[in-house]
Amino acid sequence: MNAEADALATVKDADRKHVFHSWSAQELIDPLAVAGAEGSYFWDYQGNRYLDFSSALVYTNIGYQHPKVAAAIAEQAGKLCTVAPGFAVDVRSEAARLIAERTPGDLDKIFFTNAGAEAVENAVRMARLHTGRPKVLSAYRSYHGATSTAINLTGDARRFGNDSATAGVVHFWGPFLYRSPFHSANETEESARALRHLEDTIVFEGPQSIAAIILETVGGAPGVLVPPPGYLAGVRELCDRYGIVFILDEIMVGFGRTGKWFAAEHWDVTPDLLCFAKGITSGYVPLGGVAISAAIAETFARRPYPGGLTYSGHVLACAAAVATVNTMVEEGIVEQSARTGSELLGPGLRALAERHPSIGEVRGAGTFWALELVRDRETREPLVPYNASGGDNAPMAEFGAACKKGGLWPLIAGNRIHIAPPCNISAQDVAKGLAILDEALTVADAHMA
Predict the structure, then answer these.
(1) Tens of pLDDT along 127-163?
(2) Can you give the pTM of this predicted structure?
(3) Beta strands in 264-382 (DSSP E)
(4) Is there a contact between 110 and 287 (Cβ–Cβ < 8 Å)?
């Protein structure tokens, strides 16, 4: 047995014996053992290289192993590895400043968490304490995390096994023109009807009981759902009218993913609270947080905020955040993401749709796109049913296997493939990924009605 085979066997054996994997039936999975990664690629112990069109879980915004960020983490470790969150520390203060300078409006206070779900938990807690109200409204077709409040806020099937029905959550339908719950003919109708539905929900739930409305600025896990013009501004107006806190979840789409620092910039909307994570460190060290408006910060100026985390603003994570933001500025990565979307991914994916009848819709921005795969373009029947598994999911499983065989690591969710490469992916690698997709989509085409 050579060294690589020996290392592979050791890793796989320990994984099977001791690692409990999320969202999985433990005996039915066989995780790929990753030996290394760099830029837009990772590879296994057998030398197979994969172009990562998933950015891990949509967080390696500057790619794997960026030397500037790796060096910053190492330098910080040499000076100070950790300190309690109650102290003022240079790197923590600088990370907060850099984030606050890029958030919209007056979101100038930063509460650090370890990850995105904790950001959502704390944003909801802040909203409830600020308003003195219990309920939170969130959309179907959403994902906000796997902790207790966040998973109940979530509007997709991952909620089903965790739903306690005691979290004070009310779900509503957001806009999604391709599968409109409002039978709209265009984006203008979809926006107006979705806003009317949301206001009806507010009125019939009782505005005086609603603390917050939380939305993903662009719906991530549910399918890269880009809101129609006027919708987010309309939600902002409803929140102002009824005294409701407006929370935007930018955990997946912040820090360059849609071609802006924050996706809210596309619609010139400022929430009261903004949740972030993932791209702030490119996932190198876990970090999340809540950007807080002046009005909500004032609530806790002389009243203690009843929440905290042992590792809030961990200095190694903050060092990674400072280096990531500065690297994105120095290398123009946010602007590159915008160009990649408008000049390469958008046109390239739409060209694939012209050749492959299994593509029902192409949608996205920057380095964040989705292909909706269907059995029939006229009826828009999904290629696999909602929440499909086993044999029902075979067409998507076969499509995913074809992508991997070609050297592309896909992000597949339901009947969709999400295209979310690093924000600084090269034009050559975009072309390579599109060519692999072109070949793999013939598998999806074969399953059409």
Answers:
(1) 999 999 999 999 999 999 999 899 999 988 788 877 7
(2) 0.96
(3) 273-276, 288-292, 359-365, 368-376, 381-382
(4) no
